[in-house]
């Protein structure tokens, strides 16, 4: 590659006096003075959360209103800071969801421990736990920063379900009498 | 009004002085809020706009406007400085440490004595300047007293017993002394012009305004048109003298934490702050008086003509308030220019400051002086 030698021109008197440059700069700053302000007035205005944002972990229900978590406790085991504590429970026989294996009796996520890594969401075989758009976690006591089951479902809401795994299983059991029948 | 004139002279002077300080002190304080707002606007932010006392939030239109303008942040700031614990660090020289902010305030507030801030027209049709002391030393006194401000900077830097403060103090004092020369030389042409040979000599700033309100093309021209180089040198030196960007060597928070006031806090710090803004106010006022026609609303339109145009010449009070208003508007615009330049020009390096002061501005000021002397000699002969 050839070296191109550039002649460095000597500065003109106007350039050496800085003044035209300062005037140019003043014009730019004056323009900015009257431009609309871009600050987000936070508590009143909220930022738009992009899809795929990894906020606080939440529990979700399927479109039929069934809680998807079957308290397999995989997330509890995988959680690196051990923020999740699950107490598994039976589903009563008269419940419409009696065909589902289990349901959590209690599901606590300690937000003081959670590191928002998303491993719980990744590991969940039931697609029941999602890191969604909750970005502001505040409280006055340590207890208030533990999200209980009802908080988690309130934050999580309902997400579409493609599989309806447990309904299909039930259907299959009724028709064929076996899991793979 | 008559009651006022029956009072002993000393009480009259005291009242007038307190009145001027009572106007100046809040303006200097308000400048700090203006500084924050203008900084914010230039950077595309809205600036401080939150604080409001709950009972003021009930006032319909005024309340939100005041809140948006950050007026209560100013009050909150002031109150905070007043009620905060006034720390004196253990490693400082207590006596001088406490004296420094007080010494900073004295020249900052006393220079205003010699600065006229308006005028009214008396029964004889004569334009009488409004000022605390219409003495002939005028401008010289302003320079003499305001340069005393450097002592507070040195004293604060030295008494703080801290390297940052000390470096800040040394830098600031070197800078102030360097630029004082060019500044004084820059105004000499103006003084030569208004002191034609054979007339009574004066350095009164009111006289400078009088010479910018004469009839005719050359008489009505503000000195910024007739002596632009002087005006330029003066404004550059003014930036340096008031320690404003791009010359804020004294603070230069990037390399010196806070410069000479690193160790200061609470009310003592705010005194330095108000002193700085008072210097800016008085400096801008002197600049306006010398080069931008003082209380004359427009070039070639002196106050006396302006008031007869709008038919208020016979009311001295109206003329007085009008002239103060015009003058104050110009001064506040200058303050805006200070803040505007602050966010435009980056800070000079220390050696650049010295080089600019001694190798560029001083020769330029001397050449300017010589050329104007010759020009004045030719014109006034």
Can you tag this structure with a few keywords?
heterodimer; A: 181 residues; alpha+beta; Alpha-Beta Plaits; three-stranded antiparallel β-sheet; two-stranded antiparallel sheet; 6 helices; 28% helix; B: 381 residues; mainly alpha; 17 helices; 66% helix
Task: Give an account of the 3D structure.
The complex is a heterodimer of chains A (181) and B (381). Chain A contains six helices and five strands; from the N terminus they run ααβαββαββαα. Chain A is of the alpha+beta class and 181 residues long. Chain A has a domain at 57-171: Alpha-Beta Plaits (2-Layer Sandwich). In chain A, the strands form two sheets. A three-stranded antiparallel sheet of chain A has the order 2-3-5. In chain A, strands 1-4 form a two-stranded antiparallel ribbon. With 381 residues, chain B is mainly α. Chain B has one domain (89-380). Helix content of chain B is 66%, strand content 2%. Chain B contains 17 helices and two strands. Chain B has helices at 2-6, 9-42, 62-68, 71-83, 94-110, 138-146, 149-159, 163-194, 205-211, 217-220, 223-226, 228-241, 253-256, 266-291, 303-309, 316-342, 350-380; strands at 118-121, 127-130. In chain B, a hairpin with a 5-residue loop joins strand 1 and strand 2 (127-130). The N and C termini of chain B lie far apart (46 Å). Classes of the chains: A alpha+beta (181), B mainly alpha (381). The A-B interface holds A 22, 25-26, 28-30, 32-35, 37-39, 41 and B 38, 40-46, 340-341, 343-345.
Q: In brief, what are we looking at here?
A:
The complex is a heterodimer of chains A (181) and B (381). By secondary structure, chain A is of the alpha+beta class. Chain A has 6 helices and 5 strands, in the order ααβαββαββαα.
Over the alpha carbons, how many angstroms does the gyration radius of chain A reach? 29 Å
> Which ranges of chain A are low-confidence, i.e. pLDDT below 50, for 5 or more consecutive residues?
none
**Individual helix count of chain A:** 6
Q: Give the largest interface pair and sizes.
A: A-B, 14 and 13 residues
Give the strand order of the largest sheet of chain B, numbering strands 1, 2, ... along the chain. 1-2
Kindly state the number of beta strands of chain B: 2
- What is the straight-line distance between the termini of chain A? 73 Å
Average residue-wise pLDDT of chain B: 82
Largest sheet of chain B: 2 strands, antiparallel
Structural class category of chain B: mainly alpha
How many helical stretches of chain B? 17
Q: Specify Rg of chain B, calculated over alpha carbons.
A: 22 Å
Helix content of chain A: 25-40%
Largest sheet of chain A: 3 strands, antiparallel
Question: What low-confidence regions of chain B span 5 or more consecutive residues with pLDDT below 50?
Answer: none
**CATH T-level fold name of the domain at 57-171 in chain A:** Alpha-Beta Plaits
Counted up, domains of chain B total 1
Q: For the residues shown, what is the average pLDDT of chain A?
A: 88
- In terms of DSSP E residues, the strand content of chain B is under 5%
Number of strands of chain A: 5
